[in-house]
Amino acid sequence: MPEDRVRLYVWQVPVRISHWLIVFSIVTLSLTGGYIADPFLIPPGGPVMTTMREIHIVSAIVLIVAGLWRTIWLLVGNRFARWSAFVPTNRNQATELFRQAAFYAFIRKEIPKVLGHNQLAATAYIALVGLLVVEMLTGFVLYGVLGAEPASTLFGWVRELVGLQTIRLVHHLAMWGVLAIALFHSYSCILVDNIEKNGLLSSIFSGYKFPTREEVLESRDGGPELLEELG
Fold this sequence. Notes:
Number of helices: 9
Number of strands: 2
Order of helices and strands: EHHHHHHHEHH
Strand content: under 5%
């Protein structure tokens, strides 16, 4: 490894754990949800459908807990995990969204220098949270259709107001929105890791990235004070 690179702790343990719990939950929810909507591969006879529903519900609970856990780190985490890494707090951070989008659209050759979340990714994560909230609410409505409490009592009025088929459609479309964001996230991580070569992909396992000192100084969420902390 080049001598001018530094070992930078970016993703804290709670961030990494919540990330993989959310990934696991989304994959499991998508597979079981797809089966519940239209059984495939395994015939739906016997207890199979009941088992799928139970796995779906447990995965939803895991997703909610992981989401709440990650929300706590928006308040107490390091500079790369806090809310200010997602919500633009200055003009440079706000325009970064468009500069990053221009890079993916092959309009700009250089990618904005960021050590943690770039603003386009952060905006995608906010959209992801919105879609997951929609999934959660419509999921509770659909769960209540089975007579499960307290979902049946708390959300029964939504079914009466909007209609069950509309709820199912929204739930299904939101899932595809979630998967689209996940696919773009995976693609962009592989692309940026190949360009920057600082351990982006491995950092979500280890927590560490290996940027150059110049990258730390020039990155929007870096700076000389961060280099001083590294020594």
